[in-house]
Each structure stands twice: as C-alpha cells, then as structure tokens.
User: What shape does this take?
Amino acid sequence: MATVELHKVCKRFGSVEVLHDIDLALDRGEFIVFVGPSGCGKSTLLRLIAGLEDITSGELRIDGQPMNDVLPAKRGIAMVFQSYALYPHMSVYENMSFGLEQAKLSKAEIDRRVRAAATMLQIEELLDRKPKQLSGGQRQRVAIGRAITRDPRVFLFDEPLSNLDAALRVDTRLEIAALSKRLPDTTMIYVTHDQVEAMTLADRIVVLNAGHVEQVGTPMELYERPASLFVAGFIGSPRMNFLTGQLAAAEGAATYGIRPEHIALSETAGDWPGQVTLTEKLGSDTFVHVAADGIGAINVRVEGRCDIAPGTRVFLTPDAAAAHRFDAAGRPIVRAAP
Amino acid sequence: MRFATLRTLGFYALVLVIVVQAVFPFYYAILTSLEDGQALFEVNYFPATLNLANYRAMLTEGVFGRQILNSVFVASVVVVISLALAVSAAFALSRIRFRGRGLLLLTILSVSMFPQIAVLSGLFEVIRAMGLFNSLWSLVFSYMIFTLPFTVWVLTTFMRNLPVEIEEAAIMDGASPVTIIRRVFLPLMWPAMVTTGLLAFIHAWNEFLFALTFLSTDSQRTVPVAIALISGRSEFEIPWGNIMAASVIVTLPLVALVLIFQRKIVSGLTAGAVKG
Assistant: This one.
C-alpha cells in the first residue's frame, strides 16, 4: 500500500514553475531516492512533502489522508538536513528531546525514546555534549537520532552525506542502508545529486530533470532500460558514451549509446579503430579515453590494470546487445525481440 | 634588524598616542575629583592629595542619589522594552516574507537619521498631550525613537545570518513561532542582544537634550542634566571638584557593565561567524 502519494503536484515560486505535474506513489517501507542535477527540483519536492513549502496545486496524501494543509509536525514525518541543523546551544540529549517536548510527551516516555535512539546509533556517551564538540560524522548521527525519536512514518533525508569527507561518506551510507532495514515500516525518501548513492541505497529511484519526473524504477531498471537520453547519461559511472552522426544513423537512431563497460578493447582487431588519448588508472579499473576515427571521443572501461600508453592505436568493439538507441526526441527505440 | 626595532618602537609610540588621547580626559577628571579648594587650579598630572570630600558631598547633599536611580530606571526600561520589541520585529523582518519588507527596514533606519533637535518641538507637543511631561516615562518613550531603529536593524542582520535550517528543524519538531524565538533564537542571539542592549543603555544613560527639555524638577532629572546644572555658592563659582566627582560616579556603572559583558561583546561584534 502506498504511504506517500502525489497527484499532479505543481510548485511555483512567483511566476517560475519549478515542479510540473508530479505523480508519484511510494510504498510503505520503501527506500526512495530522488536524484537529479542541481536545480532539477528534487529538494523542493522533498520540502513540499515535509511541509516547509506550500503546494501550489495538486494533492499530497500520506496514508491516504490529504496533507496539503497539515502542519509539518503533524504529518508523521521527520527530516535530516544537509547541514544537520542541530540546535547549537542544546546538548545532544536536548536536541533529541526538543521535538518530543513540543509534542507534550511524558518525561519518562521522552527519556525512553531518546535513550533507545541513542543506543541504536551508538551515541549514548555523547548525550551530554554540545554539537560543536562533535565531529561531522557524530553530528550526522545525532541529526538522524533526532529524527528517529519522532517515530516517523516517513523519513526525509536532504543530501545528508554532502558535508562529510569521502571515507566517512561510504561508512554513513552503509549505516543509513542498515537503518532502513531496521525500520522496515518506515518509508525513506532520500535526496541526492550523487548517482552512486542513489544506486546503492535505493529500492526505487526517481530521476528528476527540470521539474519533471524522467523515470521511476529500480536501480537496475534505470541502468539497463533508461527511459530517456537524460537518464541514460545520468545513471552509471563513468557516463554512457553518446555517439551521433553516421554511426547512429546506420543503426536507425539519432543517438547511439554504449556504456564504457560494454566496449571491448583490443590492440589487434575490432570494429572501431582509434588512438588512445588518456588513461585513468583506479587500480580495480582503468578508464581508457580513445579518439575513434570518424566517430569521436569514446571512454572505455577495462577491468584491472591496463598499461596502454597514450598515442597507441587500438580497436574497439561494442557489445551490440547492451547498446542503447535513442530517437531525435531522446526517447529509446525499443529493439524488436529476436 | 635595526629597522625591525624601529618599526616596533614606532608601532608602540602610535599605540601610546591613541591610549593617551582616549584615556587622558577621564584620568584628568578623576584627578580633579580627588582635589579640593585651591589645589584644583594647580596643574598637576599625578594625584597630589587623596581627598574624597567631593564624593561625599555629591552623595549625601541634595538629590544626586535619586537622580542616579532615575537614570538607572530610564536606561534599564529603555533597554528591556527595546530588546523585546526589536527581537520580535527582527524575526518578522528577517524570516517572514511580506510585501514592503525592504521599504519598512529602510524607513526604520531613516527615522534615526533625523537630528534630535529637529523632532524636539513636535515631540514636546506629543509628550504634553500624553500627559507625560516631567515624568520619567517621557524619556523612556522618546529614547526608544533612537534606540529601536538601531536595535531592530542590528538584530535583523544578525538573525538573517542564523542558518534557516535550524529554524526549519524547529518547525519540523513542532515548535510555534514564539517557541522558536524563545527556545532557539534567543539563546543564539545573546551576544548580539548584549551588544545592542549595552549600546542602547549607554545612549539612554548619556542623553542630554530630551532629558533637559521634558523634565522640569530636580528630583526627576537624570544624571547628565543634573551634572550640567550643578551650581556653586555664587554665580561666579563653578564647583569643578563636585562636577568631576559626579562624572566619575556616573561613568563607573558603564565601565562595570562593559567589563562584565566584555566577552559577549566581542562575540557579538563577530556576529557573522555563527555556524550551524
């Protein structure tokens, strides 16, 4: 059953429409990621669900009840902010209990909930500290803890990892994934511009572009069957190669897309001859940039180490079964089943 | 090496000039207040005598004690009311979007541009009409014309720099606007409030023109006017010793306040550095 439903939701700031007719239905307990480039409206959409922005037109329902005019605190949601937004003058305990106090819960119940959340996140020994005495990762946990104590139906995350350094980001990502397993009835909505976070965390991904929903689907659906040129370019790292011109026309498409991992590289024979311009060695993989004759720049992903020097002549062979073809409007051309 | 020494010397010489220029008048007032009779008119730069007679005279004779209490009352009430109004106004001006917000802010600022003397006669009529003439409330009322624009403007700027997300977190936590101001903003704004409050206090404490105009009896006067009106036994005698003793007495509370709130003031002046 759907917990969060949006019907034809629009948002205008003055005369600028930033979200156009958004229709979504999120199931209970699902981990949903809103992903898209900056300015695509993903944070605004999250803030509409949170109630921090008014909905211009359309309807938002949570558990079947209309929520358009319900106060944020009464929607059964909790939010983790990008900058954590802890109250700097309150201790960790007070930060976590503030919302419960506002909800007029009993002292004993507040204490029970704060301690339960602190235990779950392993921050019991930090309860007396002030936020400025905490590291970035600890602040993040407190912010999540504050949200957990509210026992929400829907958990909202607004780019929660963007202020952490790279190593901590991976750890925290795993913790958030574990958290959603521990709270199976809580729907999670997570906003990010990082497609790796989206792919690793999501049950389903919502790709947004310029205020429209481009595609909704599981990470693998988006990877294997992108519904548009935009999704194809956004999901997957490194980016899919897009080839136009004669080669695409020969395939009956306006754009021919092939992922770097679906191209075989050979020094002796292949479909597309070309010259290596640059190699990026990551250890586990090597990204080889090739200027293919008469085709253009192509990025190839080679597993493991690859010591080809720039300037070397190479041959590329695409895996035809994994190729994507798009028409002039950027829609995929579905290959007839063989 | 020699050049460096010279530079250090030059630096401290300049510091000395500034310190002397700022401190000497006050030092000379203290010096004068401790002398009496003819000793007053001999120029000296170190205390020759330590005579507290002038202080004793000021505090025991006449109504000077009462006048200090008048000043304390007026300045404190002005600070409390100004801050209370300014915090709520600053919240609206910095956080609530409404039509004419920028214009309103500019209007508030421009009010404080009028010289006191320009509004004096009009204000006198208003105060008479309100029946406040020769009442301390006339000063509370008129001082706020000048303290409010300043406190509102500074607190608005300060509040704008507080992260919006903290307020949004409080909204998500179910806090009402009043609770947000009281439990979230006020604790964060203490440095700014102490700084602006102190400046408002000093302004109200030192104000002369309105206090001279709106109060007519000795027992109602505030200290700046009282000091100016201290007279000697004859019209040819100006009791410098008493005047200086009174000046020192009324300066001390300000010095004490500044010392007490020193650290808050420093953090209030670096207001932009608030971090979420």
Notes: The mean pLDDT of chain A is 90. The CA atoms of residues 240 and 259 of chain A lie 4 Å apart.
